[in-house]
Amino acid sequence: MKFWTTLIFIITLNNGFAQPYIKNANFELYSSCPTSYGTFNNKISNWISSIDSPDYYNCSFYDIGAYPTNTLAFSGSGYVGFGLYGDANGSCETIFQTLNQPFLPGITYSISLVAKRANGGAWSTDSCGGVELYGTRNAMFYSLTGTHISQLPNTFFLGKTSLIGTINWRVFSFNFTPTDTIHNIFLTIEKIPNCYQYVFLDYINSGIFTGIEENNLLVNSIKIYPNPLTNSLCIKTELNDFENSEIEIINTLGQIVLKLPYANSIDVSRLAQGFYNLKISSINKRVYYSKFIKE
Prior knowledge:
Elements: E1 5-6, E2 48-51, E3 55-57, E4 79-85, E5 94-103, E6 109-117, E7 131-136, E8 156-160, E9 170-176, E10 182-189, E11 196-208, E12 222-225, E13 232-237, E14 246-250, E15 256-261, E16 265-267, E17 274-281, E18 287-294
Antiparallel strand pairs: 1-12, 2-5, 3-4, 4-11, 5-10, 6-9, 6-11, 7-8, 7-10, 12-13, 13-16, 14-15, 14-17, 17-18
């Protein structure tokens, strides 16, 4: 059960994700095709249902009449969906996995994910919260119903996105610094009693945060579009300090894959698919950062 795109102003990783922590982060690997709602377990690789019955969409199963969406997967063909039940307990479907390698205490990590809400049906009447990340030292709480992961002992809240209020795929990001070693993670929706919400989730990226942040003062001054993109990246700004400035595009390993003089349109057709960071160094020595996705 259950664009003009403004520079992303949530703090994001800009030197790159060091290495993957989350397995099957784009939900493409599966053992067998889903055939109906609630067939999450024993279908998708590396993930299991922890609370109630989240949904897996792939193969020919896109029967999303109860939780309609205006597009299919953001990347590839697999994605997941889970719902906030609208009861007094804030019960919510939750997915679980054991990490490739643990998140360690005292280190700041960054998560980027792509999400959207249902654009019709009873579960689209509310847009209550964001996607939350919890962790535990040990694998536990695989098969519960009618609760929220935050109510269970020995779980650590790690972070959450902003409100999932859009019916179109959008990148959300947050940072967190665990206080204990985290071997297992849970993804769910924020606990908000008496709210119905259904969220689609795809394409998670994770890694160590290297400390460079975007300049939040420029949110309304610079826009990049489209985002995601396939061939060209366009930049629009009313600022006048970009003449003779320099653009760098950095991959998730922190490598500069493209370096060129500032231009309003950049050919990125030869870049591989994935997340990238855009760095603009102006003539007055100000540095601006943004993030985009190459499809």
